Amino acid sequence: MSFINELLGRKDPNLVMQPLYDAVIAEGRDPSWYEQGAVPDSLDGRFDMIAAILCAVLIRLDQSDKARQEIAWLTELFVTDMEGQLRQIGIGDLIVGKRVGEMMSALGGRLGAYREGLTGNADIAEALTRNLYRGEAPAPEALDFTAKNYTAFYNHISETAIDQVIAGNIAKARL
C-alpha cells in the first residue's frame, strides 16, 4: 500500500480480505464435502464447491450495508485467484479472459440460485443439484449431507457478527 493511501486511511483490500478468502478456500476444500457429500473431487468439482461457499459468504456480506466494499474486494480476490489457477494449469493468455468471464457468469447465476435456496424461497437441494453437482444428483444421503451442512454453514455465518465474518472467522463443525 502506498504512503498516500496510508495517510488517507485507505485499506489494502488484499490485507483486509485475504483471511476471509483463505477461510472460504479452506471450507471449500474440506474433505467431508467430497467424501460424505460426494462432490466430485476434480478441478470442476473444487471450483463448484469453492463457488458455493463463496456464494454463501457473499450473501451474508450483502445483509450488511457496512460490507459493500468488502463484497467487491472479496470478488476481486476470487477473480485474481481463478485467473492464477487457470494460468497454472496451462491455459493460455488468449483464453484466460474468456474463461474468467465464464466463471464470473457462473458465479452470478449460482449466487441467485443459492440465495433463493438459503432464504427458503426455493429448494436448496435443487440448487445444489443443478449447480454443485451440475445436474446429476448424487446418492440421496450425499445430497442430504451437503444440503444440511451447506445450510448449517450459511446459518452459522448469518449469526456471526459481520466484522468476524470479514476477519475470516467462518469455520463451523459439520452436523
Describe the structure.
- The chain is mostly helical and 175 residues long.
- The protein has nine helices and no strands.
- It has helices at residues 3-7, 13-28, 31-35, 43-62, 68-88, 93-118, 124-131, 140-159, 162-166.
- Helix 4 packs across helix 6 (93-118) and helix 4 packs parallel to helix 8.
- The longest helix has 26 residues, at 93-118.
Class based on secondary structure composition and strand pairing: mainly alpha
Strand content: under 5%
Helix content: over 70%
> Roughly how many Å apart are the termini?
41 Å
Number of strands: 0
Radius of gyration: 17 Å
> Would you list the SSEs in sequence order as H and E?
HHHHHHHHH
The major beta sheet can be summarized as:
none
- In DSSP terms (H or I, runs of 4 or more residues), the helix count works out at 9
Average pLDDT across residues?
A: 88
- Catalogue the unreliable spans: none
Task: Describe the global form.
Answer: globular
SSE topology sketch:
Layout: H1 3-7, H2 13-28, H3 31-35, H4 43-62, H5 68-88, H6 93-118, H7 124-131, H8 140-159, H9 162-166
Helix pairs in contact: 2-4, 2-5, 4-6, 4-8, 5-6, 6-7, 7-8
Sum up the structure in keywords.
single chain, 175 residues, mainly alpha
